[in-house]
């Protein structure tokens, strides 16, 4: 219930614009968000990326945004991603850029999202950078997968995220292994109807393991993206992290101890960094999936 309330608050435009205009609240909430985001600017994202690379992590970097409705805003987001790729490339950060297709046009026209994705992948290719496509609400799954499949034939440097909680993912993952791109398996961050998705449960963890096993056994590039310690322990016991094409990936600010442990054991360990002014929705996602974070957020807000 707390999670649902937080998601409703996150999507309420009145609350969002009130907070953005409030000179008192905005900096306080930004302070709380900084537990999970690197900052509002690309520069802050790049500084954090270099710091993490220096510590031996791989990185993904996302310019935060989703559900962009205006054509101009989608074009601007695409331009920001192009600049990000350019700056990463010239700084020899041959890593991963993550994005939501709804940030670059999916809601307006799938052709726009496809064209922009190709433009980004082309630029990324010249710098040996990977573009990782996030997975969004189930209403967008078909469009996202279709765009990915069309693009991935020509650009092996594009990867795709699969949500273990969707029942359909068991079939999707077989098809996706026909394409060269890395597959990132997550549990799923969106509230979905129970006839198409599982809630957090042993059943979901078993499904997660099943998907991981299929991709590992096919020798396909894989990112295991979870902070679930018992689940990671099961994955470790099966030695899946020791495969060279497999990596573990976690969100910045969430269970850094677990990711450090994986890195210290010699496993490729990727940290998912974000920056941008649209951090509010990202913060709400992180609070909603783990409402205990609300206490941390409040403590961050009142601490000097
Ligand atoms: P859970 O069962 O949710 O949590 C397990 C444990 O992890 C918790 O008990 C807690 O200890 C810790 N934990 C989990 N979340 C938090 C948190 N917010 N704060 C503090 N502790 C926490 N979802 C999508 O739907 N689409 C995507 O494209 C997508 N991309 C992702 C990329 C990466 C690299 C990662 C790591 C996650 C991504 N997610 C995405 C989010 C994902 O679906 C889950 O919502 C999120 O990872 C939490 O699930 P979990 O696997 O950690 O397991």
Automatic annotation (TrEMBL):
<dbReference type="InterPro" id="IPR008219">
    <property type="entry name" value="PRODH_bac_arc"/>
</dbReference>
<keyword id="KW-0285">Flavoprotein</keyword>
<keyword id="KW-0560">Oxidoreductase</keyword>
<dbReference type="Pfam" id="PF01619">
    <property type="entry name" value="Pro_dh"/>
</dbReference>
<dbReference type="GO" id="GO:0004657">
    <property type="term" value="F:proline dehydrogenase activity"/>
</dbReference>
<dbReference type="InterPro" id="IPR015659">
    <property type="entry name" value="Proline_oxidase"/>
</dbReference>
<feature type="binding site">
    <location>
        <position position="135"/>
    </location>
    <ligand>
        <name>FAD</name>
    </ligand>
</feature>
<protein>
    <recommendedName>
        <fullName>proline dehydrogenase</fullName>
        <ecNumber>1.5.5.2</ecNumber>
    </recommendedName>
</protein>
<dbReference type="GO" id="GO:0000166">
    <property type="term" value="F:nucleotide binding"/>
</dbReference>
<keyword id="KW-0274">FAD</keyword>
<dbReference type="GO" id="GO:0010133">
    <property type="term" value="P:L-proline catabolic process to L-glutamate"/>
</dbReference>
<comment type="pathway">
    <text>Amino-acid degradation; L-proline degradation into L-glutamate; L-glutamate from L-proline: step 1/2.</text>
</comment>
<dbReference type="InterPro" id="IPR029041">
    <property type="entry name" value="FAD-linked_oxidoreductase-like"/>
</dbReference>
<feature type="binding site">
    <location>
        <position position="163"/>
    </location>
    <ligand>
        <name>FAD</name>
    </ligand>
</feature>
<feature type="binding site">
    <location>
        <begin position="187"/>
        <end position="189"/>
    </location>
    <ligand>
        <name>FAD</name>
    </ligand>
</feature>
<dbReference type="InterPro" id="IPR002872">
    <property type="entry name" value="Proline_DH_dom"/>
</dbReference>
<keyword id="KW-0642">Proline metabolism</keyword>
<feature type="domain" description="Proline dehydrogenase">
    <location>
        <begin position="50"/>
        <end position="289"/>
    </location>
</feature>
<feature type="binding site">
    <location>
        <begin position="226"/>
        <end position="227"/>
    </location>
    <ligand>
        <name>FAD</name>
    </ligand>
</feature>
<keyword id="KW-0547">Nucleotide-binding</keyword>
């Amino acid at each position: 219930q707390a999670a649902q309330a937080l998601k409703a608050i996150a999507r309420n435009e009145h609350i969002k614009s009130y907070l953005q205009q409030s000179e008192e609240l905005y900096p306080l909430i930004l302070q709380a968000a900084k537990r999970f985001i690197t900052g509002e600017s690309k520069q802050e994202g790049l500084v954090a990326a270099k710091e993490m690379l220096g510590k031996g992590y791989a990185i993904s970097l996302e310019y935060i945004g989703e559900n962009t409705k205006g054509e101009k805003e989608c074009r601007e987001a695409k331009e920001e991603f192009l600049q990000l790729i350019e700056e990463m490339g010239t700084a020899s950060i041959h890593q991963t850029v993550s994005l939501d297709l709804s940030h670059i046009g999916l809601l307006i026209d799938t052709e726009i999202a496809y064209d922009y994705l190709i433009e980004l992948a082309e630029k990324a290719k010249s710098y040996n950078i990977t573009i990782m496509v996030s997975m969004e609400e189930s209403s967008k799954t078909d469009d996202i997968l279709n765009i990915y499949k069309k693009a991935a034939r020509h650009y092996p440097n594009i990867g795709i995220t699969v949500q273990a909680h969707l029942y359909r993912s068991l079939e999707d993952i077989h098809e996706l292994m026909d394409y060269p791109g890395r597959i990132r398996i997550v549990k799923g961050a969106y509230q979905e109807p129970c006839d198409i998705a599982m809630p957090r449960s042993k059943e979901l963890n078993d499904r997660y393991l099943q998907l991981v096993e299929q991709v590992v056994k096919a020798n396909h590039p894989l990112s295991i993206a979870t902070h679930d310690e018992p689940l990671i322990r099961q994955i470790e016991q099966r030695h899946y992290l020791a495969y060279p094409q497999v990596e573990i990936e976690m969100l910045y600010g969430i269970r850094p101890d677990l990711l450090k442990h994986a890195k210290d054991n010699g496993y490729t360990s990727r940290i998912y960094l974000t920056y941008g002014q649209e951090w509010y929705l990202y913060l709400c996602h992180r609070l909603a999936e783990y409402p205990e974070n609300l206490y941390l957020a409040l403590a961050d807000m009142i601490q000097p």
